[in-house]
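One-letter codes give the sequence; the integers encode the fold. A sample entry reads:
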Amino acid sequence: MYNSKSLTKLITLFLFFLIGLPFLKFSSLHSSFYDLGLFDHFCFCLSQHFTYQDLFVSHAHLISSVYFFLYKLFSTPILLLLCQTLAIMGAIYLVSGLLLVVSGKKKTITNYQLLTINFFPLLFLLYFPVWYNCLFDFHFEHLFVLFCAIFYWLVIGQWTVDDGQNNRLPTKLFVFLTCLLCCLVKEVFALSAIMMGVYVIIRRRWLVCGSLIVLFSLLYFTFIECYAIPYFTTGKEAPAIWHSAFGYLGSNMKEVFLNLLTHPWLLITETFSDWRKLLYIIAIFGPFLFIPLLAPLELLPALPQLFISLLSHNPNHYALSSQYTAGLIVPVFVAFIRGLPRASRLWTVVKDLDSGQSSIVSGQRFGQGSMDGRQKKIDYQP
């Protein structure tokens, strides 16, 4: 039986490390600045006097209502930093299956599962977007990391489908609710939820569940982006939302989508227009040797955030030191896990082809040598 004590100690060490550094930075500066200060002020003010209009200014962080109630009990930025780290670190247990083994629910472990338990959590912890989103500032995007991990845990987790009861209602209901929570984190994640619905339809053949997710997420995104945010966002921030990043595509959501539908090559041209976008792609997929690209289905929830970053003219969207990488962490990691067996098979095929070519070359050389020997033997006959 696998002893998980050493790995648990290592995970715990990283946990205290990722919690301790933001806390030490906050304590040494004796202040909260940038987005941490903004959201600290935002949560404190709404915890004292709640107004729903403030939830739709610039972005729709409806899930932030949870923090308003927590701030009534413990109003300090430390609470935000702690929740952010715990949410991101909690995703590792769901994605890698470590929680299942530690809880003792599975008695036998295959070699592949043993590799998963040892290797994958360490890769997750060493992934740069994980470090940045844990150590720098505060953003509500950290909740998407947790909810996305719960989504994959429900849809493709072995402990939910091994018994063949993958069509039972609670699983579908929880998947739908998880996608709903993803929408409430930020309006852009409604697009990710749409792709989650498509993923559920393709991966599990849950047609009704996936269709409802797509329909609800699409309606939610349309209402929030086209009506709620423009209505409650006034002043200079209102036009800046579009023109700073996507003004070249159109002045509103309808024009942007029509432009992208009629000019699909824009994604390629915009990607190669700035070397920093190419560096962004390398930094996201390079640590996993681009193996996630071998599992494109698992990357579906990451496509909206990835395409937005590549299409944007705002450098913050494709900067490595930004919170916008949070939407890519779990899908890329899951795609890496699912792509490893395919990479192994591909490597076997390449080795077989290489050995086959070597055999052919050796055979040709041997045949050529035999012909040369016969020719010499014929030439020297008296």
User: Anything to note?
Assistant: Residues 98-107, 159-164, 376-382 have pLDDT under 50 and may be disordered. Residues 5-232+265-357 form one domain. Residues 326-379 form the longest helix (54 residues). The CA atoms of residues 160 and 166 lie 7 Å apart.
